[in-house]
Each structure stands twice: as C-alpha cells, then as structure tokens.
Amino acid sequence: MSTIAGNIAQVEARIRAAAEAVQRDVTSIHLLAVSKTKPASALREAYAAGIRDFGENYLQEARAKQAQLTDLPLSWHFIGPIQSNKTREIAEHFAWVHSVDRLKIAQRLSEQRPADLPPLNICIQVNVSGEASKSGCTPEDLPALAAAIQALPRLTLRGLMAIPEPTEVRAEQDAAFAKVRSLQDSLNMGLDTLSMGMSHDLESAIAQGATWVRIGTALFGARDYGQA
User: Do the Cβ atoms of 215 and 33 come closer than 8 Å?
Assistant: First the structure.
C-alpha cells in the first residue's frame, strides 16, 4: 500500500469514527482531497485508492494537472480566492466552486458556465471568525448574497464554506462550525452542503454538520510551497 493510500484509509477511519460519535450517516460526509502544490502523480495514487474529488486553490496549477489527468473521471472543486479574470476557466473546467464571496464573481461564473455542462455547484465562503486576512463575506451580508446567487442561471447554490481561525481547542472549533451551520439554517433555503473541516479539526466539523471535509496534509503530507 502506498503512503497516500494508507493516509486515505486513516482519514476515512477518522471520518467514520467522527460520524458514529454523533450518530450521523457516514455516507452524508464526503472527502475532498486538497491537492494544491502536489504533482499529478500524487492525484493518480489517490484515485487508485478511491478518491474522485479533488480541491485546487490555484487555477494555473489546477489546469496543468487537469491536462495530465484527462484519462481519469475526476470531479474538480475550486476552493481558493477567485480573481475576476479567472472566472471563465473556472466556470468551464470545474464542477464545484467553494469560495464565492461576492456577487460579481457569481455573476461572471453564471454568464460563463457553458450551456452543455450541468449547473455549477456553488458554496458561499463566509468569514465566521472576522479575520482580516481571510476571504469570505460577512455573516451580515450573507442573506442578500445568497438570495442573489440563488436567482442566477447556470449555478446551483448548495451551501456554505468556511475556514475558521485555527485553534486546537475543541470547544472553540465547535463554536465556529456551529455558527456556520446556524447561518445556513437561518437562510431557510433548503441548502444541503456545509464545506468545513480540515486535517486538524475534521472531527469537530463533522460533529457540527459538515458534508464536505477538505483534507490535504493528512492525505498528501506537508506542502512544499517552493514547488507550487
């Protein structure tokens, strides 16, 4: 078994245990492999071990990997900050976008989504911790943004994404993720997706309702940004 395959098995075991601890159906929780800075060969290994969904933060890097992996039936998720000049390629080459935080970007994605593809799955990124360095709309701006995105053609608003301020204190993790869930519930739009939780806090995220956990380091090892 490769290192990546072994890591995937360990993460999947953590997901099962976290789901059982709060009596959730494990099939409602999906593993998104965050593969930024990792070579296409690592994604092939992960695919061989059963992974089908990959999250990328950088468009140019993602497009290079997509070109190398056209023989595999992968589902690509864009999870990084989005510049206006990148929306067309994202609309054309991804199935999900987890990081929409303003209407202009959503409008461009809607306009540029090819008609022969299914609607683009959208999550709104919310800055629940109020960090100046983090992307995401404010909780106060969320209702209006969600309503506007839901009305756009060629997009399907699925739910919320968040990256809370990192902490190793479980109670603080729980509070942040519970806030995301509460914000989604308060929209009353029937949304089905909560994209939250990473390698260090996936148990807390699952306890608070995560449906996608975005795992990079625990699957692929530490990132070498010098190679990105």
Answer: yes
